[in-house]
Amino acid sequence: MQISYKNKRLERVLIGVSVLAAAVVAGTFVMLFGFDEPLVPAPILYVVQAVLLFAFIAEKIIRSLNTLSIKEYLRGFWFEIPLLAALGVAVFGAGRWFATSEPARIRHAAVGVYLVLQVVTKVCRTVVNLVASGRSPTRALIGSFLVLIISGAGLLMLPRSAARENIALVDALFTATSATCVTGLIVKDTGADFSLMGQVIILSLIQLGGLGIVVFGAVFALLLGQALSLRESVAMQDLLSARTLGRIGNMIAFIFVGTLLFEALGAVSLFGMWDDAASWQGDMRRQWFYSVFHSISAFCNAGFSLFSSSFAGYKKSWGVYGVVCPLIILGGLGFGVLYDLFYTATGRVRRFFKVRLNKEVRLTTEAPKRLRLQTKIVLSTSAILIVLGMVGILLFERFASPDSSAEKVGVLGALFQSITARTAGFNTLSVKALSASSRFVLILLMFVGGSPGSTAGGIKTVTLAVVIMSAVAALRKREEVEMFKRSVRIVVVGRAITVTLLFVAVLFTATLALSITENSNGFTMSDIMFETGSALGTVGLTTGITGSLTAAGKVIIIAVMLIGRLGPLTLLAALTFNLKPVKFNYPDEAVIVG
Fold it and tell me: Which residues in 305-322 are b (16+ Cβ under 10 Å) and which e?
């Protein structure tokens, strides 16, 4: 929501002061909670926070006086009034009406919560405004990921984030990138090398990176009653690949509510699973944290686990196949597909009851809601890949494994590996123990990945379907690519081929680069390609070489994970955003291919 101000220069000054104040707020919290002992005495930091509190309040007052319409300002920042009221009750009521034993602690906590909310509000609105600034939205998206990764790495390097020794810069950067890009490759044991604070930071990066900080900014704005402007809605439509502008708000709300619902159901369902393993040594609080952590990690297709061997110790548990697998599949379908399924299902239910309850409606020509072509392609391709991957692993482990380990890989194990290879990254089997043929199947699945608009990586299921059907159309001598009795535009076909070629180029280039940097480690080319494919597909499966990578190798994997999460086409679009299309064509001439 855009608010008009009288003095533009004063508004720019206030924005600069707000940015500086937000940075100082973050610094005070880092010094308070990031070290075993605060770097600056706590009373001094509390005084600084009190000064920042008055600075934020003064900023609100000045902005309200500088606005052209006080009603417009109050409508846009109505939440500030109840927030200040709650702060006043906590500050002045502590020691009088409640918390008579420790009033200072309540006051400090109340001021801290208010400052955090102020910073979060400003960051979220700034991200949405940058996306809608008229410049390339993809550049703002890339910038938000980079800021998130750097900030996360800095927080993971704090002494209280580590459970053992402090985390080195390259390892912190690697972990932050892996979490933000929802990959799951690790150079440090998440459950053993990070403290609870470090694990919460990783979980926050997974959630923010999985859904995208831009979506969180829009969600936060909508929750506070701030309607998106037309320019912001157009920018969000571009990032979400939505069809109509009018449904942007509904889709953003669906993404937020749906994510919370799926993750909450997953956490509740996983709560009793940990008791199945004899090695479990946790209380109820730890049990809830493990449930929430793995539920979010599964739905965001992150693959991070608090167990050193992932789910190998729970390969016989129903929760792995009945909860984790559905969460991975739902997270990999894409929010657009989930929204279309929900919208179509509710539309048909409403129509069913209308027809049954109102006889006049039966004579109307209103057609039932139908699934979009995108949804049909995603569902059919995902199902085919899961089945083919499972069958391929079963067959290759039975007939191509040198140690005859068919008993080790059952139907459920093969099914789980087929599902998780499409960018989740959990495992119930040792990837290194699989045959070379099975690992090649996993590389193919990782290369394809999930679906557009999801938390998954890879070239995406729709891209694969379009490329295959392009070949089918050529063999059938059809001029158009056809799927489900619909034609696919030639520009979409060109984009699918471009994405595929770019992914192949990145995969081979990174593999060759790693073969040079890891020459001293003696890794096989198969292991290196598997690691690169896992990073590019944001999967997280590994043959066990991640922790042994050189510093240069880790930097290469960091870059590949970021490319895989954003997509080569997104990066290319950001680099070529200012290029103008030519307004002429050259004469055509026949060439022979094939």
Answer: bbbeebbebbbebebbbe
> pLDDT per residue over 266-314, tens digit each?
999 888 887 765 556 667 788 888 899 999 998 888 888 888 888 887 8
Stated pTM of the model: 0.85
291: helix, strand or coil:
helix
pLDDT of residue 405: 46
What are 518-564's pLDDT values in tens digits? 888 888 888 899 999 999 888 888 888 888 888 999 999 999 998 88
Amino acid (1-letter code) at residue 83: L
What gap in Å lies between CA 184 and CA 576, rounded to an integer? 30
How is residue 359 annotated by DSSP? G
Contact 186, 301 (CB under 8 A): no
Q: Is 160 exposed, middle or buried (0-12, 13-18, 19+ CB in 10 A)?
A: middle
Report the interhelical angle of 103-131 vs 8-33 (nearest 10°).
130
Among all chains, which residue has been given the structure tokens 């158009």? 480
Tokens of 152: 């996360």
Q: List beta partners, residue 194.
A: 162
Q: Report helix, strand or coil for 197.
A: helix
> Phi-psi bin for 582: left (phi > 0), alpha (psi -120 to 50), beta?
beta
Q: Of how many residues is the chain composed?
A: 594
